[in-house]
Amino acid sequence: MTEAIWYFADGDEERGPVTEAQIRALIGTGNLKPDDLVWKEGMDDWAAAGEVPGLFEKEPPAPPVESSADDTEAEEKPAEEEEPVKKSKAPAVKRPRRPMPSLDVSKPIEVFEIASFLGQPLFLAGLLLVLLSRGCDSLGDRHVARVTAKSKVVEDQFQDRWDRERAPIESRRRELADKPNPTMEDRQDLTALDEKLRELDEDKQDELEELRRGEWQSRASAARDAAPNNDMWAYWREGFFWFGTFVFSLGLMVVGFTEKRAERRWMCLIILAVVVYALYTVRS
Prior knowledge:
The protein is mainly α. 64% of the residues lie in helices and 6% in strands.
């Protein structure tokens, strides 16, 4: 009786023809698993090796046979090496076509699973960068206004302090000067008030020059350099803004195309359209 010829699937390739003994040898070494497809003459279609009766079932132990001289000689002979399994492009016997692995469209592809996992972090990171860059930009403008205003406030406070000291002296001097018939004492008081005003002006001028050489000079320099420094940093803040906008839009696109719920997909795509319109239409 002719021994059955077998074929088996090795990944995407068909191998064979092989004998049943070679099939069992592959099973014994673990190279052929129960879910691997096999076929032999007489089978209607390819089937898993574990479903073929007799392949993975243990055979009953053979009854003991008395040893003989012929058996001893057979044992002493070296076993013939099994021929290696060879690839066969087309067997002589017509056999059914091996089923190809089908794509289960109900399961998401791994790339989309990874993209869906990264969508929300990209969305949040981009939003944070946009808010941070715009916030720093506004804060820089406020800093320029604060430094400039602080320099002016210090000068105004200095002038107000000297005006408060000068006001009562000038008021008393006007009273004495407006008298129709001033006495000798009034004239002496008027002269003393004029001298006091002169000394007050000299003290004010000395303090003013000292402040201009020291504290006011540093404040004036800070107010002068605040605007150019803010313009210099505005370049980097604008760069962070556009980078954050890119990350934010990428996150919206990923979430919009990988989200399972339709309402969230449409919401992300609408937000993306609004962002693009605001960037390239309103800002221009």
